Amino acid sequence: AQRDAEIFDQYALGTLDALEQQTAPVDLVVWPESMFGGGSFVALAPPGAGLPDAFPGTLDDLRSDVAMRNQFVRDRAQSLQRAAAPRNAGKRPAWWGGMGVVKYAEQPRQYSATVVLDSGGSFLGWYGKRYRVMFGEYIPFIQSIPIIKQWVPPELGLSAGYRAEPFQIAGRALLPNICIETAVERIAVNDVGRLLNQGQPVDAVITIANDDWFDGTAVVDHHRRCAQLLAVAIRRPILSSANGGPTFCVDDHGRIGGLLGRGEQGGLVAPVTAASKTSLYVRTGTVPHTILTLATLAMALRPRRRKVA
User: Fold this and answer.
1) Which residues pair with 240 in a beta bridge?
2) How many of the other CB atoms lie within 10 Å of CB of 62?
3) Are 93 and 119 in contact, with CB atoms under 8 Å apart?
4) Which of 179, 181, 185, 226 is catalytic?
């Protein structure tokens, strides 16, 4: 808990220093995956949810605990926003941070999530990571093989989140994305295509990551290049805030507009304009990929005639 608090304090002080160096106020501050938690999490207790097996109290106790935890997150965000305002031309920025979300039920679910608060410190919503890292964040077939389930602590592993919806901040529609999801490009491609078909704009993708998983290896650079290609694929800028990884911004052509080097501490400021382009890839989704894959398999598996001398 002390280490989590120290990390949180470092990010808070670094953010305030970065704001002091800007000549114009910013509308949104983005922190990397997991860094906004500081040892806490957002709790959800949907109506009708049962009492978790391991919870030492009544259902009323649970709801009181949920309210207390969420108020703590709001209070802390508001404290950061008040501290930021004098350094941000008197304006309180909205906050976009990575932290855990726990949904209580008889079997609680926990998510690696993006939690977004408006400039007043009220929750705008959250987005749970859908594409999780195997073994680090989930173990395949664990629910189907009882002996494996017995070996793994019950609190280990993350649940998959739900589909992404854009957050409206300062007149821009910002689509959330978490960590390795930028490398699995179909996730953002399908999200942008679905939203545009529904008449909902998407002006940029904001991704948060914790690439300390990869310990400074070439995977970190690979992650950035994947995001650049994704920006081209969806014709949308991508803003990435990462711990131990690629903190950068790229335009809709994949060109880097700002980049923090490995191990470099600091902040980037990126303007987001209203998007007007749409790619063919977004319109068609992964249908062409599927057709080409099936055609390739058909050619590979077709019977071959043998030559007879």
Assistant:
1) 207, 248
2) 19
3) yes
4) 179
Q: Which residue has the higher pLDDT, 38 or 137?
A: 38
**Residue 189: strand, helix, or coil:** helix
Catalytic residue among 33, 137, 181, 185: 33
Catalytic residue among 129, 181, 185, 249: 129
**Alpha-carbon dihedral of residues 29, 34, 38, 39, nearest 10 degrees?**
150
State yes or no: is 33 an active-site residue.
yes
Mean pLDDT of 152-175: 87
> Would you say 88 and 26 are in contact if contact means Cβ atoms under 8 Å apart?
yes
pLDDT band at 235 (very low <50, low <70, confident <90, very high): very high
Tokens 């802390």 appear where?
76
Which of 249, 244, 189 lies closest to 219, judged by CA? 244
* pLDDT > 70 in the chain, percent: 94
Backbone angles phi, psi at 123, to 5 degrees: -65, 125
Answer yes or no: are the C-beta atoms of 114 and 97 closer than 8 Å.
yes
Question: Which ranges of 169-215 does DSSP label H, i.e. alpha helix?
Answer: 186-197
Cβ-based neighbours of 195, under 8 Å, separated by 6 or more: 165, 166, 175, 201, 202
- What one-letter code names the amino acid at 118? D
Would you say residue 252 has pLDDT above 90?
A: yes
129 is annotated as an active-site residue: yes
pLDDT in tens, 44-89: 988 777 778 778 888 888 889 999 999 999 999 999 999 999 999 9
Residues 6+ apart with CB under 8 A from 180: 131, 133, 209, 223
Contact 188, 216 (CB under 8 A): no
Contact (CB, 8 A) for 235 and 252: yes
pTM over 0.90: no
d(Cα 84, Cα 93) in Å, to the nearest integer? 8
